[in-house]
């Protein structure tokens, strides 16, 4: 399969997972539980995970999903090409019913994201990108959506910026003193700074589409939180770096937790 054919499968998987998520989102009981790391998981996480596994099975590639079995590094280290998935990124936002959650599916090749899909099931925003080829956004895709149809009917990223104000995307649910200090440094450098709080990987999408200039993450994230967004933002001509703004974030590490990073 070509990368375009693979990403078409990922687009379809994300949309089908979104249908499962919307169904549970409109129900009275999310069946919320706490995982071993004290983070919440709902029936929507589980059902979306199952839908994605089923949809990607025909690709023959291994899948590393937040809600699946986390294979040990000795097995993973030889994976040349695999899927990295967060079936429901922003579970806290899902529980709060604020619509700011996404399905994230990334294609990883030799520790780098080469293609990615992010779908927001409630707002209908679909993002997809292939490195060195481009990134697009499409609203309210149908179940037969492909990367080609996104190119035909969607908007190429980044979009033309009209505002001159410097915009910083920040987490809606996670804030700390280090991030506040970073924002203050930006104020000293850029003058007036507008802060926009968003849940899930939508913050990365904001930088990719040009509605935000930067997204600093000084806190805990896992590889599946960022991989799809990383592929999309690279396809849009931007990147995710460590705080030195030189070293790119990498994937399939022995420890799946990300270091602090800056999306810019």
CATH-wise, what's the superfamily of the largest domain? Fructose-1,6-Bisphosphatase, subunit A, domain 1
Q: What about the largest sheet?
A: 7 strands, mixed
Q: What multimeric state do the chains show?
A: single chain
- Tell me, what is the CATH class of the largest domain? Alpha Beta
Order of helices and strands: HEEHEHEHEEEEHEEHEHEHEE
Derived from helix and strand composition plus strand pairing, the structural class reads alpha+beta
Total number of helical segments? Answer: 8
Q: Report the helical percentage.
A: 25-40%
Poorly predicted ranges (pLDDT <50, ≥5 residues)?
none
Span from first to last CA?
31 Å
CATH hierarchy: architecture of the largest domain:
2-Layer Sandwich
Provide the domain count. Answer: 2
Essential attributes:
alpha+beta; D-Maltodextrin-Binding Protein, domain 2; seven-stranded mixed beta sheet
Produce a short descriptive summary.
The protein is α+β, with helices and mostly antiparallel strands and about 260 residues long.
Verbal overview:
The protein is of the alpha+beta class and 264 residues long. The protein folds into 2 domains: 3-157, Fructose-1,6-Bisphosphatase, Chain A, domain 1; 166-263, D-Maltodextrin-Binding Protein, domain 2 (3-Layer(aba) Sandwich). It has helices at residues 3-25, 43-56, 73-76, 91-96, 147-153, 177-190, 202-209, 223-235; strands at 33-34, 40-41, 63-65, 81-89, 102-109, 112-120, 125-130, 134-139, 155-157, 166-171, 193-198, 215-217, 240-241, 261-263. A hairpin with a 3-residue loop joins β7 (125-130) and β8 (134-139). The strands form 4 sheets. A 7-stranded mixed beta sheet has the order 3-4-5-6-7-8-9, with helices on both faces. It starts with a helix and ends with a strand. α1 packs antiparallel against α2 (43-56).
């Amino acid at each position: 399969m070509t990368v375009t054919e693979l990403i078409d499968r990922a687009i379809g998987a994300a949309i089908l997972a979104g249908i499962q998520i919307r169904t549970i989102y409109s129900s009275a009981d999310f069946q919320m539980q706490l995982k071993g790391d004290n983070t919440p998981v709902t029936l929507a996480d589980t059902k979306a995970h199952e839908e994605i596994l089923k949809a990607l099975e025909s690709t023959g590639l291994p899948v590393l999903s937040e809600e699946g079995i986390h294979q040990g590094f000795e097995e993973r280290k030889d994976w040349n090409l695999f899927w990295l998935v967060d079936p429901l990124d922003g579970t806290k936002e899902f529980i709060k019913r604020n619509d700011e959650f996404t399905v994230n599916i990334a294609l990883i090749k030799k520790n780098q994201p080469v293609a990615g899909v992010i779908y927001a099931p409630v707002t209908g925003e679909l993002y997809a990108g292939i490195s060195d080829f481009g990134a697009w956004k499409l609203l309210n895709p149908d179940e037969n959506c492909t990367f080609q149809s996104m190119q035909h009917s969607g908007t190429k990223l980044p979009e033309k910026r009209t505002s001159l104000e410097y915009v910083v995307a920040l987490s809606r649910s996670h804030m700390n003193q280090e991030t506040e200090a970073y924002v203050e440094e930006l104020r000293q450098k850029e003058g007036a700074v507008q802060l926009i709080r968003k849940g899930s990987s939508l913050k990365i999408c904001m930088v990719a589409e040009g509605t935000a200039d930067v997204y600093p993450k000084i806190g805990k994230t896992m590889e599946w939180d960022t991989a799809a967004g990383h592929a999309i933002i690279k396809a849009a001509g931007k990147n995710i770096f460590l705080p030195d703004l030189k070293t790119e974030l990498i994937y399939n590490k022995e420890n799946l937790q990300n270091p602090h990073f800056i999306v810019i």
